[in-house]
Design a protein that fits this description.
mainly beta; 4-stranded antiparallel beta sheet; elongated
Length: 312
């Protein structure tokens, strides 16, 4: 939550912005196989009960390793990345999910809402502000990932991984599944990822990629997912996607001090960018409008909340 504090006095003006951390998404890394009957049953419940009910709070990526069968069509499409990620994370059977680096134990469900809740409602100083996908030639695309340090950077060393994902692929699989969601198509700079050094507080670190996309992919269903991993613990610090709403940012656009001692003609005009409208405004003086007028000498703060309940 960010509060923007503005003090209005008779002879002097004092304004400050209090920085805070941004939303931390729960990254669900999901392992499946189109030849796995148990995957078909558990995946259907997972998509209906977890993915559909937590949009805006999670990111989801599906890998297809070679077990139980290397005949899985998505494994065949990218054997190196699917096998590499499974080996890197110690996955030896499917279906399986990992949330922010924590392996979820096998159960009747892939992931319960109670289990997921342990990873929701958190903040982190590393925020993905923009992930941009631009065509650069026939089936060639340039990708730019921008990560802002919002507040003090945590002391650790990191790896950033970035993937090309297809949102939904119709395919009548041997296990009975007919639609496949958030399929990993390609890991950029391979599955190992790249070293990530956080920018100084308030600044942005940029990572650039270039990739050739398979012409069989539906470009309208392609998006980019990126995430940062703590190399010491394996914990995913935060993630971002090119189809995320822009982070909610609030700034002071204009203000006016009171014209004389005891006056009530001060005003504050704020700008809201990013986030998901509609927005709610909660001013310290009780006002609920974006801008406030007829202000007396005092100190004022505002909290802006968007439709996804993000207060940034």
């Amino acid at each position: 939550m960010k509060k923007f504090v503005l003090a209005i006095f008779t002879l002097a003006l004092c304004s400050a912005q209090l920085f805070s951390q941004g939303q931390r998404y729960a990254l669900i890394e999901h392992f499946s196989n189109t030849e796995c009957a148990d995957c078909a049953t558990k995946n259907a419940e997972f998509y209906q009960n977890i993915v559909a009910n937590n949009l805006g709070d999670i990111h989801h990526i599906v890998y297809h390793p070679e077990f139980p069968s290397p005949d899985c069509v998505f494994f065949q499409a990218n054997q190196i990345d699917n096998s590499g990620i499974a080996n890197e994370l110690g996955i030896t059977d499917v279906p399986k999910v990992i949330v922010n680096g924590t392996v979820i134990p096998d159960g009747n469900e892939l992931l319960t809402q109670t289990q997921l809740n342990n990873f929701l409602g958190q903040t982190h100083p590393l925020i993905f502000t923009d992930i941009i996908l631009n065509p650069a030639g026939t089936d060639v695309y340039d990708i730019q990932v921008r990560v802002k340090t919002d507040g003090a950077e945590p002391p650790s060393d990191y790896t950033i991984r970035t993937a090309v994902i297809e949102t939904d692929i119709p395919y009548n699989a041997p296990n009975g599944e007919t639609m496949h969601f958030d399929v990993m198509r390609l890991m950029l700079n391979d599955y190992v990822g790249d070293p990530f050094i956080p920018a100084p507080p308030g600044n942005i670190r940029v990572h650039n990629y270039s990739a050739v996309f398979d012409p069989s992919w539906d470009i309208d269903n392609i998006y980019i997912l990126s995430w940062i991993i703590d190399n010491q613990t394996g914990e995913v610090q935060n993630s971002g996607a090119s189809n995320d709403p822009k982070p909610l940012e609030v700034s002071i656009n204009d203000f006016e001090n009171i014209s004389c001692f005891g006056g009530n003609d001060g005003f504050i005009d704020i700008d809201v960018e990013g986030g998901t409208p509609p927005f709610e405004f909660d001013w310290s003086n009780g006002d609920d409008t974006e801008d406030v007028t007829d202000l007396v000498a005092d100190q004022y703060s505002v909290t802006v909340t968007d439709a996804l309940n993000n207060s940034q």
